[in-house]
Amino acid sequence: MASGNGSLAKAVIEATHSGELSAHVLAVLTDQPDAEVVSKCAALAIPIITHPLEQDREAWNEELFFITESLNPMLVVSAGFMRILSPDYVSTYKVINSHPSLLPKFPGAHAVRDALDAKESITGTSIHWVDAGMDTGEVITSCEVPILEGDSEELLHERIKIVERGLIVATISQVLDLLETADE
Ligand code: GAR
After folding, report:
1. Which atom of ligand 1 is closest in space to residue 98's alpha carbon?
2. C-alpha distances in angstroms, 183 versus 85, 177, 178?
3. Residue 126 — very low, low, confident or very high, per pLDDT cuts 50/70/90?
4. For ligand 1, which residues put their CB under 6 angstroms from it?
5. What percent of the chain has pLDDT over 70?
6. What are the tens digits of pLDDT across the range 13-39?
7. CA 157–ligand 1 middle distance (angstroms)
8. Is 99 designated active site?
9. Distances in whole angstroms, Cα of residue 18 to Cα of each of 7, 13, 26, 45, 165
């Protein structure tokens, strides 16, 4: 699932193509039909499902359920997806999320800006299980990124995303191994 540029989604898809990640991406779902992630998926020949937010949030949640049910994924990966998933959804599916801070510090939609505003010297990225809260699920992996003098939100976020792309691929691999073992 992705809402924006889709560089994390692209890194995951490419890792499956190169064999670095032993997994098959069934589809990418976005709530933003005009987002960059759509053309990235098209270029990589990955099915993209657009599911724009409707006024009726309940109906949107329900449709998301049906879409996911039809794909029957082993794992749902929120990679830059800027929507909160319903408690029902996250208790039905195994969902992980990539977040641009060292959780539990700076949850929410402005994690990079919040770390800069707090005058931190180190921030980073965390991959966590998604529960019903906002970025509150158990952290699986994380990686530090130093904040440099003169960093803007954009510069810092780009440096975090370089680390994030590697971490999400490694973490998906780790989680799939875990789920496969649990299945045996
Ligand atoms: C990533 O930094 C991801 O952690 C963040 O959006 C970016 C997506 O980058 N997600 C959140 O902030 C969710 N709270 P991308 O569009 O280039 O893949």
Report:
1. 4
2. 25, 10, 9
3. very high
4. 2, 4-9, 79-80, 82, 98-100, 109, 111, 161, 164
5. 100
6. 999 999 999 999 999 999 999 999 999
7. 9
8. yes
9. 16, 9, 16, 14, 15
pLDDT at residue 48, rounded to an integer? 97
Centre of ligand 1 from the C-alpha of residue 158, in Å = 10
From the list 17, 24, 99, 157, the catalytic residue is 99
Let me know how long the chain is: 184
Domains and their CATH numbers in the chain:
7-183 (3.40.50.170)
